[in-house]
Amino acid sequence: MTALDSRPAVEAPPPTRTPARARRSRRARYAITVLIFLLPSALPLVMFTLYPMVGALWTSLHSWNLLSPMQWVGFDNYIHLLQDPATHRAFLNTLYYLVGYLPLVYVGGLALALALNSAIPARNFLRGVYFLPVVTSWIVVALVWRWLLNPDIGIVNAVLGLVGIDGPGWWTDPAWAMPSIIIASAWKDLGFVMIILLAGLQAIPADLYEAARVDGAGPWRRLVSVTMPMLSPSTFFVIVISLINGFQVFDQVYAMTGGGPAGASTVVVQQIYDLTFRYGRAGEASALSWMLFLVVLLITVIQIRGQKKWVNYA
Q1: What is the pLDDT of residue 1?
Q2: How far apart are CA 17 and CA 36, in angstroms?
Q3: What does pLDDT average to in each consecutive run of 10 residues of the chain (314 residues)?
Q4: What residues have CB less than 8 Å from 260, skipping those under 6 apart?
Q5: CA dist 118 to 21, 49, 67, 74, 121, Å?
Q6: What span, in angstroms and rounded, lies between the C-alpha atoms of 18 and 29?
């Protein structure tokens, strides 16, 4: 036997993973880790949001009075709702609310944010005072405004009477019922809009204002050319959130007017509530809720796509 034959045999190295397999393994471990951390939030989302949405979609294809077994009707509920004048009135009332509410709450919130962003006495205290209605129950706010706008004993009409103005019937008058709700809603949400816009204002670099002053820009020109463009991301967020919340308006309507008088303030969510619990037409109510969801989704998608033309993230 030679010396070469006496050397121990060298074992072959173990097979190594290919780069592609290693990348897939790392991605799988990362996905599992993410799912584990998301699980505490994902479970409530699935149980209390996604599952009820799917259940409402299934219910919308049936006729159901909440007591007897459901009967399959296909898309008849959707067809009936599209032809029902009550549905048209509910959507028009909701649109009326949005047209009055959005400008009022945004302009008022912007005015408060600009005022409370400047050096004024008790600035922090005033910020807390204006934000207080946001954390107050909607039922409490609605009942307070129902009393304030009472045509007989309300403070608002009493003050108007002192200056020789005969106050309207407010929530008892079909022509003034929706404006009453708009005023109460804007008052409650001013603090939320103020805080969002105030955060946006504080993120604007002071150098931009200094450069504008050097160029001779006055307060109005600085507002238009510096503040509003730099505030556009906050404005976009406020508009999207306010639109979504506006389409779902219900609490203040239910507490102040109940959808009346004569259906003058019946909004879409109020109609969904009435169809379910007053008339026992849960299938139509589910169909209407999905119609509302699709409308909100469409408008939100349009806003997100259109933001590139006016939102400045620089």
Answers
A1: 47
A2: 26
A3: 52 59 84 86 84 91 91 93 94 95 95 89 87 91 92 91 90 92 94 94 89 88 90 92 92 90 92 92 94 94 88 77
A4: 177, 266
A5: 59, 42, 59, 59, 10
A6: 17
> Which of 55, 194, 68, 82 is CA-nearest to residue 132?
194
3-class secondary structure per residue, 289-302 = HHHHHHHHHHHHHH
Nearest to 190 by CA among 135, 142, 150, 228: 135
- For 202, the token pair is 């504080």
Cα 133 from Cα 192, distance rounded (Å):
9
Residue identified by tokens 């009346």 is: 260
Task: Give CA–CA dist 210/94, Å, rounded.
Answer: 44
To which H or E segment does residue 225 belong? none
Instruction: Report the pLDDT value the prediction gives residue 239, as an integer from 0 to 100.
Output: 93
CA distance 46 to 214: 56
HSE-CB for 90 with a 13 A CA cutoff: 29
What SS3 state is found at 247? helix
Q: Which of these, 101, 130, 125, lies nearest to 238 by C-alpha position?
A: 101
Specify the pTM: 0.85
Residue 85, Cβ neighbours under 10 Å: how many?
A: 7
Q: Rounded distance, CA 238 to CA 193, Å?
A: 6
Decide if 290 contacts 57 (C-beta within 8 A). yes
Nearest to 312 by CA among 203, 154, 210: 203
Per-residue confidence (pLDDT) for residue 14, from 0 to 100 = 55
Contact present, 256 and 184 (Cβ < 8 Å): yes
Task: Give me 7's structure tokens.
Answer: 């050397």
**Per-residue pLDDT, 312:** 80
φ, ψ for residue 109, nearest 5 deg: -65, -40
138, 181 contact by CB (below 8 A): no
